[in-house]
Amino acid sequence: MKRPLIEDDLEQKYVALVNETLGTLNETQRVFAKHRDAPPLAPNQPPVAGALVWCSGLRGRMEAPMIKFREQDKTLLEREEAKEVFKVAAQLEAALGEFQEQKREEWRRDCAATFQAKLELPLLIRHPPTKFHNGHLEVPHFSLQDFFNFSFLRSLQL
Asked: Which residues contact 127 (CB under 8 A, 6 or more apart)?
């Protein structure tokens, strides 16, 4: 038994679902292409970690509608419109994966090139005019006996 009104309604909803999913994928792809060279970062976020978090967010934005799209009937998923959605999703997934791997490799090269020099840097640096170490006043080294003698002498002067 055919029901043309229901079929027409489902067809319209399917077209709307395809258009919405394709629109989300295209918008995600546009944002990725626009900010690929300089991803938006939080104020104190390291560049590589920030880029990876940003990319992960784009991946999440892409995957949410694709999960719902894949739940559709198999006959609908075999149509040309669905194949276009899967093609755009695969291209975007590949581009995001390549970007993440590129950033990880960039981080590995940077670490390998600078780790020895950074290990040789002093942990504390004295600021010459103020004699401060990282905001703490440098106290001359006293033995415990010197400390007690100094406290005892100070108490006598009061």
From this structure: 133
